[in-house]
């Protein structure tokens, strides 16, 4: 039977089911015309864990990129992206189906402790506005290479859980993202902070939040001075204990200083 309601009303009804995934799945089998609107909510938030089976099931369910619901995804998370997936020659086309992501979270800590490449994620979504990256054993040049592949990027959070030993060569890019929102850096930040300051066009963050060791104060102040013209809020905290090792990242903060810029 054809519906007597206009499409706009049907879309509005489906939109009210945004927090009812079971009902949204039922809508997908009622009518083909209902599928796009239901998928918009069902696939808006996608999270892949470190288990390879999650990715395999997705690729098996949606082998054709042209019919994949990945283009509905706005929030995408890779938690413990396996190295074997990151370097898979067939992964590129599969990952590229997530071309409309607005917020991306990546944790490179692979389940097998192997080094994960970020190359497959370069320029993943030209509309990306927010990036959160938790990494270990990844050179800051590779991290900044990923950052610079998103021209509309505004908010950036970097969490390093290893001691800094970054001596790789750094080629300053010709262009840099917008970077007009929030910046958060935790862990070994000196190299990442230094290379952020090297980006062309300067930094335009309105909010900066840093958690690091007291030895990194000079790097912090240099970073803050680079975006002083646009900075509205600055906060720095020191993790409890003398070091910034993985065991204390994100745990009890003993000192917090916050400065408001007029």
Topology:
Blueprint (H helix, E strand, L loop, with lengths): L6 H9 L5 H7 L7 H8 L2 E4 L3 H10 L13 E5 L3 H4 L4 H5 L7 E5 L22 E6 L4 H8 L7 E6 L21 E5 L3 H8 L9 E5 L5 H10 L6 E7 L13 E8 L2
Parallel strand pairs: 1-2, 2-3, 3-4, 4-5, 5-6, 6-7, 7-8
Antiparallel strand pairs: 8-9
Quick structural overview:
The chain is an alpha/beta fold and 262 residues long. Helix content is 26%, strand content 19%.
Would you give an account of this structure?
The chain contains nine helices and nine strands. By secondary structure, the chain is an alpha/beta fold. The chain has two domains: 1-42; 45-260. Helix 2 (21-27) runs antiparallel to helix 3 (35-42) and helix 7 crosses helix 8 (190-197).
Characteristics:
about 260 residues; alpha/beta; 2 domains; nine-stranded mixed β-sheet; 9 helices; 9 strands; elongated
């Amino acid at each position: 039977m054809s519906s007597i309601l206009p499409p706009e009303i049907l879309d509005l009804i489906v939109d009210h089911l945004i927090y009812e995934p079971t009902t949204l799945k039922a809508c997908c089998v009622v009518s083909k015309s209902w599928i796009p609107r239901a998928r918009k909510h069902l696939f808006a938030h996608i999270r892949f864990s470190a288990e390879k089976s999650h990715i395999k099931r997705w690729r098996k369910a949606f082998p054709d990129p042209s019919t994949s619901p990945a283009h509905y995804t706005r929030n995408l998370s890779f938690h413990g992206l396996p190295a074997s997936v990151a370097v898979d020659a067939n992964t590129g086309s599969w990952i590229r189906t997530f071309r409309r992501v607005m917020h991306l979270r990546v944790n490179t800590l692979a389940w097998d402790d192997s080094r994960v490449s970020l190359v497959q994620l370069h320029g993943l979504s030209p509309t990306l506005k927010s990036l959160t990256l938790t990494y270990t054993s990844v050179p800051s040049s590779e991290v900044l290479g990923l950052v610079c592949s998103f021209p509309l990027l505004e908010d950036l959070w970097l969490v390093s859980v290893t001691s800094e030993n970054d001596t790789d060569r750094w080629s300053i890019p010709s262009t840099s993202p917008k970077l007009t929102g929030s910046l958060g850096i935790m862990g070994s930040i000196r190299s990442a902070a230094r290379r952020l300051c090297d980006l062309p066009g300067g930094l335009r963050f309105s909010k900066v939040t840093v958690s690091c060791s007291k030895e990194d104060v000079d790097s912090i102040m240099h970073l803050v001075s680079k975006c002083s013209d646009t900075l509205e809020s600055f906060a720095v905290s020191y993790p409890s204990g003398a070091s910034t090792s993985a065991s204390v990242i994100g745990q009890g903060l003993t000192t917090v200083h916050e400065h408001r810029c007029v």
